Amino acid sequence: MALRVRFLVLGAIFVFAGMAVTLLVTVVPNQQLYEHLPDILSSLAVLAAILIVPLWFALDKWILAPLEKQSLATNGQAASKPVIDEVTDLVASHGKLEARLVHEEEFLSQVLDQIPTGIVMLDGENRVLVINSAARKFNKALGIPAVGETVRTIGPIDLADLEVHREDGLPHELTVSRFQNRNFLVETRELSEDIARKGMVLVISEVTRERQAQQRAEQQERLAAVGQLAAGIAHDFNNLLMGIMGFAELLSDDDVPEAAREDALRIVNMGERASQLVKQILDFSRTSEVERKPANLVPFLKESVKLLKRTLPENIKISADLGAVPHFVEVSLTQMQQVLTNLAVNASHAMKSGGELTLALLAVSSDSASPPAIPDLQQGRWLALSLADTGSGIPSEVQSKIFEPFFTTKPRGEGTGLGLSQVFGIVKQHGGFIELDSVVGTGTTFTVYLPEIDPTSEERADGIAETPLGGGETVLLVEDEETVREVVSRTLDHLGYQVIVACDGSEGLAVYREQKSRIQLILTDVVMPDLGGPEMVKIIRDEGSNTPVIFMSGYPLNMSPSQIRSLSPFWIQKPLNSSSLSPVVREALASCPMEVTPDDSTQAIQ
User: In what order do the strands lie in the sheet with 172-176?
Assistant: First the structure.
């Protein structure tokens, strides 16, 4: 640049010189100019030679050098400014990137922690890279190590076995028995080769509640099927027992030798024992009909504890935590006594060398804000009655069968297997639930949940006691079993009643329509072919009749007890005899008295 400036200056000098010469030629006459031209040019050459050198150096020192310095400074700043800005922008960008990575890592961690499923990410060496909070909660049961540690097993199964996918495509299921049979589903999923050296992700879900609910549903279905079968057998067996016991009782009242009378009474006694076994089966199937009344469980349980202390072996210590606050349920105290006795006797058999039996009563509330104590517990107030022993415990493989009738772990001849099945049926009849918690070598706890009710000031009075014999009232007997029909007919005749019989509901309805003016009571079976007892009575009620009705059955198949009681409050359970039939008949007749017409026959119409 400096060289170009110098030549530009020299060029300017020569231009000015040329202009001076031209001006001189124009002003001075040509003759004179030509004469003095050589001198002028020589003078100009000398002057130029004298001025060029100092002018050259003057330009370099005072004009060009400062300009070059300023130019260099300006160019240097212009060249260096983009580099500094780029470095500064790069540093700032790196900081933002790092902050963004930290934020995304925290966000990802929060998302993983909100997932209820356990997530564990492993690298190619099976070291833990990431673990969420759900997986950390499973650590105690499954033994999942912390971040950076190597995973070798998940619960009782080696990690290598979990990597082998099942043929059905389902996850592996693990059961950890040392933590009361907690159940887990574990699924492995491989990562890409460029991620963590081809590691994998473990997806872990706890399904303990689901498996318990599934087992409970399967148990309920199995028990319902067994209960239906047992109830059907009990119904038929009750009819047979009723015939055996009824004819034996009638025989004992006839004019027979004393030895024969004693034999007949033995038959009646054995029939009553058999009927108790049938009642246990009916209790299990939840079809037996009982009278339930409001009762305070606290004093009842205190008296029961005193009874158990006198009944159970002395090497068993019995304690109770019942509290002083009254808790009321609608219950059959007789059946609840059977529940306590069966559970306590079973507990004593598990503590042959002695132990402790603890009874506890606790009020629990189930609502939408908190999970229920057991999955089946509906919203409301409940009483939890628990009996805990320190016995040998019940193995897990038989716990699902423990309530089935005739199932027992006792040696042959030491138990019928009906105790716990009866307990199960009684609790279900009362709208409750029963739960089992047992550990082998530690003990067993049965917890009965019953719906709590508001306390009542009085209980209903019991039914009337046994009353005198009949006074010739007419009873319509409707029964499809010939043997039962004959036994009940003769029993009523023996008690002093006139009897009209019908072999099913259709015939009973026709007979009633023909002779309703003289029929003062209807005694009918519940389950009959063609037309059942409740259906027959409903038709009679729809026709405007209020004749009292007594239902009798060993198993109400078609209607629930509450539906049957809506048609009549009087009920008698098979097998029946004269002592159980007489007071119910008198009570029913007293509820709706009716005058006997003069033309009543004194003979039973067959």
Answer: 128-131, 118-122, 200-206, 182-190, 172-176
Look at the alpha carbons of 320, 326, 328, 334 in this order and tell me if their dihedral is positive or negative.
positive
Torsional class of 464: left (φ above 0), alpha (ψ -120 to 50), beta (otherwise): beta
Give the Cα separation of 40 and 38 in Å (integer): 5
DSSP collapsed to 3 states, 413-454: CCCCCCHHHHHHHHHHHCCCEEEEEEECCCEEEEEEEEECEC
Q: What percent of the chain has pLDDT over 90?
A: 12
Which pLDDT value is given to residue 207? 84
**Rounded to 5°, angle at Cα 544 from 538 and 549:** 50
| pTM summary value | 0.45
Predicted confidence (pLDDT) per residue in 82-123, tens digit: 555 665 666 667 667 777 777 676 777 677 777 778 888 888
Compute the average pLDDT of residues 338-360.
Answer: 89
Per DSSP, 170 falls in state P
Q: What b/e readout covers 250-263, taking b as 16+ CB neighbours within 10 angstroms?
A: bbbeeeeeeeebee
Please report the DSSP string for 15-72 in residue order.
HHHHHHHHHHHHHS-HHHHHHHHHHHHHHHHHHHHHHHHHHHHHIIIIIIHHHHHHHH
Closest of 500, 570, 576, 567 to residue 536, by C-alpha: 567
pLDDT in tens, 555-570: 555 555 566 667 788 8
Residue pair 551/564 in contact by the 8 Å Cβ criterion:
yes
Where is 184: in which H helix or E strand? strand 182-190
